[in-house]
Structures are given as structure tokens and as C-alpha cells.
Amino acid sequence: ESVGVEKTSFIDATRIVEESLGETMATNIFLAGYAYQMRLIPISGEAILEAIHLNGTNAEANQFAFNLGRMAVEKKLPRTENQDQSSLPGAEAVTLDELIEHRKNYLTLYQSRQYADRYESLVRRVLTAEKAMASNKVTEAVARCYFKLLAYKDEYEVARLYNTDEFRESIDAQFQGNFSMEFNLAPPLIAPTDKHTRRPKKVRFGPWFFMVFRLLAKFKFLRGCMFDPFGYTADRKLEQELIVNYERLVDELMPRLNAGKVSAIAEILLLPEKIRGFGYVKANNAKMVAAEQQRLLSILLKDDTSLVTLVSPEAA
Fold first, then answer.
1. How far is it, in rounded angstroms, from Cα 255 to Cα 238?
2. What contacts 305, CB < 8 A, 6 or more positions away?
3. What are phi and psi of 253, to 5 degrees?
């Protein structure tokens, strides 16, 4: 028999694709990859990937979705920046203090102790302001979303992650014998532009690129400063702007916090969770979030319009 309970699989493909790509258009391609890995499609994977490439429409994203579907079968899905709180660094923490401490440790590795202190300082200020309301709802929102904004995945972070013991151990656990690794990347500033999509095109790099990762990881201290060569790209400018705007928003909302506004303010400060994906997908999501933030602020503040221009859709 080709059907039956034992041959039926269920997977939340839409959620996985949206968290990984910031949109759901590639869900069917994801399912094709899933079916292929289940040996239900009698065509080679190379042929399918080549067909996606020749089609030309969102080829890179669709190829990624196809491989993501294959990985889902093997239970080796990559972590995404939009995972729920239970899968973020510090998820094993029981108390809010432990959660903050775990994320401080992560941000110290990500950037520096000063960067981690910046995170803790803002979260603690919110915690102090909210204590009188006998609630942690706003503090938890800031602890989650401020961390998400601070820990954006850039070139330095990718390089650092490729140099961790965890990555090397995971590779050794999956492969044996003599093997080499290649990387398909679209480095800013040097990646060629795809003539069809007008977006950076990925280039294949050999095992020697590990040396580049090791070197690049050492320069993470440049992140966000005027000497950061990647900081002048549109993506990095957006990510830095989102951080600064969020800090300003928190500072402006705290004096207005009272028991009757806890839920509304928490909802506003949770909006960055919807800023998903990379590149143009992330930029579009940021614009939608900015517009939604404006709407919620207008409801919250009513006649008080002092915050309306804090984060405009155009700024995103």
C-alpha cells in the first residue's frame, strides 16, 4: 500500500518557511523538498535545483526552501531568528533574571560585554518602571524583542558561528572520512548582481574560506562603527536604525506606562517579532511593522501625538 497512517507525515510548512524566509510563497517548494527526501519524487535533487535555477523566479529563495524541506525530514532544520521564546538563548531560564543573564552572555559572545550591558540596562529600566503594576508583560516583551534587534545576523556573526566548537562538532557528527566543505555566499560589496532579479548573486567558495571566517570573526568590534565596511549597506543601516528607534520608543513609552496601558504597550513593543527574513524581505516587513506601530500608537495616545513621528514607515 502507498497510503496509510504509518506513511502519512504532518509538518507546519507554512510556519517554517515564513520564519526562515520571511514569506510563505516558497511553501510548495519546501514540501517538494520534503517529499523528495522521503523518496517520493523519482527525480534527482540536482535536476530539481537546476530546474528552479532555470525558471529564474526567486531561484535562490526557492532552492533554499527545497533544501530546507529536505532538512526537515532529517530533523536538521537551522535555527531562525524568529523562533519563539522557548528556543532562544536562555530558554532554559526559569526566572526573568536568569533569562536576562543568559542573553547577556550570548550578546557578550556576539559583540562585547559593553554591548550586553546596553541590553541589560534598558531591560532593567523597564522592569523598574513596571514593578508598580505587579506585571512583567512589558519587560518580557522588551527582553525578547530588544535582544532580537541587537543580535541581528550579519557577516561577523556568520563568521563567528562557523568558528564555534558546536559547529565543528555538528559537522563531525554528520560526516566521516575525508570530506571538504564549500560555501555558497553573496558577500556584500563584491557579490555579482543577478541580471534577472537585480539582487546579489551567490558565489561558491572552497574550504579555504574558513580562514576568511576566522579573520572576519576577529573584527566584530567594528560592528556598527564608522569603520565597519559592511555598515554602509542598506541592510546594516536598517538594522542599526531599528535598534536606535526601539530604544527611543521604550524611553518615550515608559513615562506613560500605567496599569491600564500595560497590554497595549507590550503589544507595541512586541512588534519587532514580525520583522523577519533578510534583505528586501526584512525591509518590507520593517515597513509594515512601522505602519502597524503608528496605528497602535495613535490608539494608545489618542490626543498625544508626540510619538507619531518616532518611527515612520518611511524611516524603515
1. 27
2. 298
3. -85, -30
What pLDDT, on a 0 to 100 scale, did the predictor assign at position 81?
43
Q: Which residues of 81-102 are buried (b: 16+ CB within 10 A; e: fewer)?
A: bbeeeeebbbeebeeeeebbeb
Q: 3-state secondary structure string, 158-198?
A: HHHHCCCHHHHHHHHHHCCCCCCCCEEECCCCCCCECCCCC
Distance (Å, whole) CA 264 – CA 111: 32
Q: Residue 208: how many CB atoms within 10 A of its CB?
A: 9
C-alpha cell at 313: 514607515
Gyration radius of the chain's alpha carbons: 22
Q: Which amino acid is at 183?
A: F
Single-letter amino acid, residue 271? L
pLDDT of residue 23: 65
Question: Which DSSP helix (H) or strand (E) runs through 204?
Answer: strand 203-205
Query: Along the chain (316 residues), what's the average pLDDT of each consecutive run of 10 residues?
Result: 59 79 78 89 87 78 85 66 41 66 90 95 93 87 92 90 81 76 78 76 85 92 91 90 94 89 92 85 89 89 55 45
Cβ contacts of 136 within 8 Å, gap of 6 or more: 96, 127, 130
- The number of helices, as runs of H, and strands, as runs of E, in the chain is 13, 2
Secondary structure string (H, E, C) spanning 99-155: HHHHHHHHHHHHCCHHHHHHHHHHHHHHHHHHHHHCCCHHHHHHHHHHHHHHCCCCH
Q: Is the CB of residue 207 less than 8 Å from the CB of residue 181?
A: yes
